From TrEMBL, chains A, B, C, D, E, F:
SUPFAM superfamilies with a match to the protein in the record: Ribokinase-like
Domain Carbohydrate kinase PfkB: 2-317
Full protein name: Sugar kinase
Family: Belongs to the carbohydrate kinase PfkB family.
MF GO annotations: kinase activity
Annotated InterPro entries: Carb_kinase_PfkB-like, PfkB_dom, Ribokinase-like
Keyword annotations from UniProtKB, A to Z: Kinase, Transferase
Keyword Kinase tagged: yes
Length: 340, 340, 340, 340, 340, 340
């Protein structure tokens, strides 16, 4: 089995302890996270050989990001070092009717200012089998759309599978910008991952009669969305995560997968949330792991959903769960009995 | 819009971390809180100009109380400084079937020993539009009943609206004492706020066939209570908070408001509790904010209930929420989706 | 009322803070716990005179275990001091679908290597009325089965009641070893306590058609199990705790008690879990307390179940609750209203 | 060797973490301490059988004080339970030129309001050999001077040695009050312990030409003070601790002992301070331990000074050191080499 | 006495706990600080009426900065709200031979991108008597040099005294840039404050034969520097802080003041460091306080040096000391004896 | 430059926070450390390619040890996984006259029970240039002496330099056992590292007239020791660290190096201690780094001493310092001035 490469921005995540609000706290938990880094750690925790690519400053805050990855076995040798700052996101954990809150301070990070010539994709993809990125990376602007395109081109040339999680972020770019750029990149993408809103935000494709705020999801609608995505952009696979937000503490979590001919729906999990950040990323990592291991489609989907269900019980961006734990849940044991 | 003035006692709140019981912990979270202070901070968080009046020692523990208020924008210039001690309440957070526990150590505090001549109400109410206090303040004894009466008198003379949250505390005074004193003060009060039990404890007015311990509430009964309160004591408005205690972790929260002619009932919220102390105070603050801003009665009630629903998700006595957060919930979005 | 003596191993319990996984944490909560020590502390919290017997090293880690007991009033004078190490268990708290995880590092502890001649049971049982141990103690191997037998023999000789919680631990011994040893000890035991699986694991007696993983329990089956246990081994009383694991965060908790003629079933409590370790031990302590105080059988059971229901809301192995708190719940008030 | 009994008030000690000032901190370390309790714990740590007598409320804050003592092996059976509050002292740790700061909130504590009839000194002193108290106890006022006198009378009657640490606290009583009361008690005292200022504050006996603020001590002067104390009040032994305050972080620590005929001076230790509260109490405990064990006078003094030197390196009021550690230092090894 | 106004940038200060290095820590203390904000808080702690002016984002991280100031009584009404980010500095505390380390992430902060038209200096200086800023503020670039010049102009026009701490930061601008800008501003400055290196870095004026790295200071040289500064730029007063760095843990601290005719040298303090950040700012605040209160020149200097000596014992950027504490030290009592 | 390989045992290090004693603390800092692991991390921090070899259990506590190494860039691919337990050492930090205390619980660890056939030294040393181990490794007993010998043999065969830090631990083996085993291994060792006592404990070679407890060191004596060591056992280089223990808080630190012909003495550093564990290991790492980089002998020694001087200011076993920081100190700048 070949290596996986993921590319994006890893940020410093600053978070008041427990359920304190920003204005009540003078201590922050200081972890690191970011879509593609989260996928990389999750894969490493499944025993996959994975390299994470980004640009990070040489100073200790940048080094902290590197160490947060290699601690869990992610390859960091391809990370370009330089620039001045590590992007930051402040996170306040919600509870019940009070939503979690994110304040971004990521402009002008080393990653956002990275230059195309700093990445030797031919070398980076040496020995690799899969390339993953998210829509956040081109949304960073500067040369990033160009770098993503170049990475995709060389990935395809070298025979890698390419997956992308659309991950629309309205604070980073407009829907028009997203559509223009992502349309260019879509042709290289084999596996497209999205949540309930991404398809509409990025490609203007929406599930009829879905009421996200109200927490209701419409399965038939998502089948149509998946078909349109696959039909229009030529994705081999389209995966859509289906989150019903009952409150900041309780969600229902499921997903569907469309393989060009059939729609698969996963089991649905009630999730009592410890930390939901990185939920989608852990789903992506579950998918990639399963595809790499040649699982059946329904099993692939169930593994990915079980993995990401467990993510909601883990603090931090990274999904710290093992294959065995995911399998146990996917096979039906969510009883949480003490493992002695 | 004029200023709000609140008057009462602010205490040091000492609380074991997390869910530790008193006897397991050798570290305390040290925050400050008290009914009228909680209302003041909540109003300041809504952008209202508010002064808090009390008496506090000049030493650092007293200064800590002052700083806890001015940090959030509450005016503290009218606080009388002097005396020896800050009242304390020890709080142990309950969970599920285990109730939260409060141990008071508030006797002989600077506030409880305050003298009438220390407060120049004419000056304090200068530029003010609203005066709020709770039944706890006269219950402190000493000259406090007298001081409250004097404050009310001058408030009315200067045209302020007066609100009072009955807040009966059986450790501070008997029902007879409460009735005698509160009956004297009732004539000055425009808006009376109570919880399910206060009307009975203070004025002997009870909702027929209500079974508080069993967690059942009787809407018709509360309508009768509100009418009797308004009828007997001449309140313009009577607001009653309706808490159904399923367990220390889960409550249902709602309220009713009677304006002398109609009864309004709010939406009912299931609350998964982070910290329920100050729930009633945050409701009072929501009411006052809405009245000051001339909202419709039903909207007034819904704002107050939504504000206090959110309080249950916030650590500490103070309700750290913004107008926007309250509005979003009052308008129906309690989905808790991450705000990025 | 005479003294209770409990005998077993107390371990250092090392646990990441909050919901952190082992690999995310570089700080451990360091508490102490172990089946019989948990029973002892629980009894001491009910005001019972209780001695705990074990062997612990003379160094500070051993002394820490002693202090953790005498802090709550357990008699520690009979503890043998010597040996090199305190057994350890690492505990990772689960949430929702993610199970709690225990890693044992208890081999070669001072307790496991204790010698029969180090315990003078005649003296230890002086003035005692009840002796309690669990199946974990003989499972430690070495001379422990022998020591347990000797303790039981002398206990019976001196007229003590003997209770034993089967507590099968598959990492400590095989089912065959357990059956052989426990069969020898069974003759001395008056009160046998077990959970849903112990009877099967230890004595090969199973409730027909019970599906533990699926969380379903079969009351009729357990009646049969209790009868067989009592019939085969001559126990006066058989108590079985009935846990339905909905998830690591939510269980349903109940128990049954068979007195040789009738089966009693307790109320059933939904438990939202703070810490479920020691749940069974707190049930045992509730039983012993009630038996010592001559309660009616149904009341005995209800007290024990209410006590252990509350344990799930308390951090650590030890059940830190008072008789009053247990009674209040047993009598039906689980509303969790703040106790001021 | 008989038992030691100490009598006084134990308080809740609330202290910001690390070197934070009161106004910077919203978390307090919550320990317990008080002159005579500190002596009791220190003696228990030396293996001495010791009972601590006081009055404490029945609630959890009072129970916490009890547990803090029995955790370390102090006998707490003679503690009277009742009253409402545990006295508090707030402690802010100083550093370098910034002094440590103490704010007392101890008025009206259960101990301060204790009644003479609540203490059965005949029973308390049963089997005891030594009685220790400090000048703080009568300074609490109310019936405490009377209770101390009664305790002393019965102690002498039953043949106990009586020691008293003068411990003048200007916030508790005036010099005149102190002199009047302590003069009455002096006749019962065998061993009088004082620091550099107490003799002057309490009895008006001063060392000529001592400049405490400047940190200079005058050995000849103290010899004179000791002689006067012994001469005037008939003490068998007078011990004076000699502290040179270079800064809040660094002191020089020594003591002298006068046995009615000779003056003994101890070695002098530079102490780099972790926590200096309880320094004098740990000295008293060292003296008592040595007297009980019949040590030579110089050895007695050196043991007491070495014990209290080590106290300065231990957090909290209690001196957590062993006989072996004290001996090692008294014999000259203060090299602090790692003990493996 | 009129108001003081200070103007500059306040940053979020992120610092590993205790002595942990950046790469060892996943928790940060999150305080706020910045030269002029530090001066403002110090003055507020001395009871001075002081306004702090800057630009801060409207979000919670910006609000946190505002709250950190008003908590201690600094006026924040003149702060412009807007922009996206709060500048950050990461601080790692040194010890002994290991130096403290600062990593700046302050580019593009709301303050650095502030526009001249956002500040109405006429209104800001209403009722003010003194204006203080540091060389860091114009060094932020953009319109800041211009804004500083305008502020100075209007300050002088309205009769305020103007003080400036040169505070050269080589990461913000070159020596040439500094000289050009500061030369323009010098004409408005009455009181110039500098450390041992600033005069050389900013104005190219150096003390002959000073060896900073070696920790030696040359008093005669500094007299010459002060005279040149005053002579060339027309300052009424020149104050120079004199720090001898023995190690990251121990410094010697003193200062000189030149009033155009005489040089005053302060006492010299050995400082055992808790936190040395903000040492210079606390000196500046001490000077301003003394000038405003019309103290003698030597007393002014001694007050400022004692205040800043104490700052080294206080965690955080802000000097949390009272006038009484400073006076006590300035008058010679640095013994650190416990204040009860 | 080739790779370095180190081999030994890494333990879980459990330590009360701050200066709390074991019996006062219910929270432990949980780090990892061990002689050869410490050397490996230190080398990785200097940018050296280094592999650490040991045996660790597959469970999370074992994985935690692996992660603690790869986080800082140490190669962990050669670590054998298996066995049941990770060795533990409990560490209590001393202060002033109170010594640090270590309690070992390392028997029967996976490393101590490792088997010779589990290590393929030919493969492990592939591409390596240097092999380092300490006397602790053979002292673990079992097959470890044999494994060390085999490792040394193959290392020499493949042309690696071999260094060994004698590191005598009296709790692991007797002096006789140490001498017998280490004499066998000595023939393979090129660079022998020892502290002031090791030569005597292991080989019976002592410096005449050295008084370790008193803190005095005898330079002439150590020259003689080094010569004897080199002469008797054929070491190319002998390095001796020279620690003068003034107290647990303050040491003087220096070293000597003997190259067979000349003795080199380093500068002597007063060290104010944050954490002295791993001081010797950081010296060894400094030596190896310098030898690998072909430094002059005096420079080699100064680098190693400066590196280990800095270690004393760093929490944990690992020396978290960079080449630049070491060089700066070795070149004479220990002023600790803030690095901005």
């Amino acid at each position: 089995m070949g290596k996986v490469v993921t590319f994006g921005e890893i940020m410093l995540r600053l978070e008041p302890l427990g359920y304190y609000r920003f204005l009540q706290s003078d201590q922050y938990q200081a972890l690191y996270g970011g879509g593609e880094a989260n996928v990389a750690v999750s894969l490493a925790n499944f025993g996959v050989d994975v390299d994470y690519v980004t640009k990070l400053p040489a100073h200790e805050i940048g080094q902290g990001a590197v160490n947060s990855l290699r601690r869990f076995g992610v390859g960091t040798e391809k990370i370009v070092r330089g620039g001045d700052r590590v992007g930051i996101y402040y996170l306040e954990k919600g509870a019940a009717q009070r939503a979690s809150k994110v304040i971004y301070d990521r402009s002008n990070s080393a990653a956002a200012l990275a230059k195309a010539e700093e990445f030797d994709w031919e070398a980076i993809f040496d020995g690799a089998e899969w390339f993953h990125f998210t829509g956040i990376t081109p949304a960073l602007g500067g040369e990033l759309p160009l770098i993503c395109e170049e990475a995709c081109k060389i990935a395809k040339k070298k025979g890698l599978k390419v997956s992308c999680d659309l991950n629309y972020r309205k604070k980073l770019w407009s829907r028009d910008q997203a559509k223009e750029t992502m349309t260019k990149l879509a042709g290289y993408i084999d596996v497209c991952i999205a949540n309930e809103e991404d398809a509409k935000d990025v490609f203007g494709i929406s599930a009829p009669a879905t009421d996200i705020e109200g927490g209701k999801l419409n399965h038939e609608g998502y089948k149509a969305v998946a078909e349109q995505l696959a039909g229009t952009y030529g994705f081999d696979m389209v995966a859509i995560t289906l989150r019903t937000s009952l409150s900041a503490s309780d969600n229902i979590w499921a997903a569907m997968l469309y393989d060009g001919s059939r729609h698969y729906f996963s089991k649905s999990y009630p999730v009592h949330i410890v930390d939901r950040v990185g939920g989608g990323d852990s789903f992506g990592a579950g998918l990639i792991y399963s595809f790499l291991n040649g699982k059946e489609t329904q099993d692939t989907l169930e593994f990915a959903v079980a993995a990401s269900c467990l993510k909601h019980t883990v603090e931090g961006d990274f999904n710290m769960v093992s294959i065995e734990e995911v399998r146990k849940l996917a096979e039906g044991d969510g009883s949480g009995r003490v493992q002695r």
